[in-house]
Amino acid sequence: MELSEKKKRNRYHPAQDFLDRLFRFIRKPIGSYALFLFLITVVGCTRDSRWTTETHPGKKEIKHVIEGIEGEKGVVYGSPHSFPQIPMRRRLRPCCTLGEKDRTTAGEVLYPGNIFENIRAISTMGVHEYDSGTTLTGTSGDPAIFSDEENNGLVYTCRGGFIDTAQVRDYADWTVLLTTRFGRKLRKGTIFHLPKMGGSVEIQLKPIPQGLLTHLNHRTLAILLARWAAGKLAVWHEIATWYGWSCVSEYPELSSAFSPEDFYSKLLGIKLAAAIAARHLERSENLYNRSMTLWLEEALKHLGATDHKTGRAAAFDVKGVWWDDSKPVGTIDYLLRRKLDMGTVVRPWLLRPKSKWLTSALKRQCGPNPTPAPLHNPESVREINFADWVTLKFTVSGNMSRMAPFHKLGKTFTQEQFDEILSEIRKQLYERFGSDADKPYPVEKTDGKKSGSKKSITVKHIEGKSLNTKESDDQPQKGADEATEESDNQPTTDTDGVGTEQQGGSAK
Q1: What is the model's pTM?
Q2: In which domain, by residue range, is 205 found?
Q3: CA distance 239 to 216
Q4: Residue 499: pLDDT above 60?
Q5: How many domains does the chain fold into?
Q6: Is 170 within a domain?
Q7: Quick one: which of 314, 320, 396, 421 is 20 to 30 A from 193 by CA?
Q8: 54: Cβ contacts below 8 Å, ≥ 6 apart
Q9: Average pLDDT, the chain
């Protein structure tokens, strides 16, 4: 009897054995991480999309597929109903200041001891979430909602320099939103407003004639116009933050306006979203989020994303050259160099490492001479000037409207005045930080001296409060050789694969 009971107890139970093994695996660190990823995937796949589109074809499309001749002119591919109704964005992702700091400001208060770890590696990039961030001024909704899954930060890449993944995601979201807004209204035109960003923002789309829709198919034209408009919105964001606007009023963004990585990162997001839309991958929110997650990861790989340790070393390598660790984050003097080139070709700033360790690490991960990856930012395609069909109108008020050059331009202006505004900003930048402050490294003068020493002046931001500066004799980093950038006003016909094929083509 006792022998029979013992056999029963020792009998093999497959289900029980599986559960025992599973629990032992979960107790391990790798098991806990695997379970976390599984739950995130399940939640992400079961979440209801805020938008979706029907895949039911229209009568004209069916007729063309059955009766049309391949390559026949006069056929408009796509229709307004093929674009989903994506909800207006209400948030921006407030990230990330170049460098790593142990002090920051909130309004007039200085908070010591808050360490901001901004550097990321490609392995830590999280899942994209449309319109993640903090609530913008003048919009309704839950404030200060951040996606823990995105884990945004700065990634140093071999060919693209520093990439701010929050900026990439933000302007991908703007691009896909504008694509669908334009796509649904190309034939009739439309006027709509975006959330306030340093003032009111209005976008006007003129009705597109049938001839133009047959020259470039419906979807392609919507993407190209949206990509151009998102680029102008990106320029305005830099302008607005230079004059003191911030998405969270308590945390000034003066230290991030025209940061070396900003516009390149924004443009990268715009190009990724354009390629995603060209493949109809924005037709539901879940599909767009998954696509953006994958495309961002592959883009970082293509640009040569470095590991976390190398990225941190890269940030500290330009301390004292690009950013000043003696100044709190949020103040205008924190960032020593600003990148104002926003033309048709945008080139990244790559490091010239000083330390032997960083030199070796970059050589190992990037090769001996990594070539920069310029991003094209065309104003026209196939003799179609985008500004002829889309206008961005901005209206500023308060102290900002009384500052140069707005006191002469007037409170309301369009993207056509950006060159004049940027010229004034460049003048202010030179007066405060020196005549080479828009270059990655100090420029040698003909007499052998280096330009770029600060001047004792006072610059006022949007709040009307003076930002006092001290007389500085700080010398530029020794050993930096002369650096000049190529002209960014070269014409280009690059379309990211959305302007040459009927269904979108391939992205570069």
Answers
A1: 0.76
A2: 23-47+84-467
A3: 32
A4: no
A5: 1
A6: yes
A7: 421
A8: 81
A9: 77
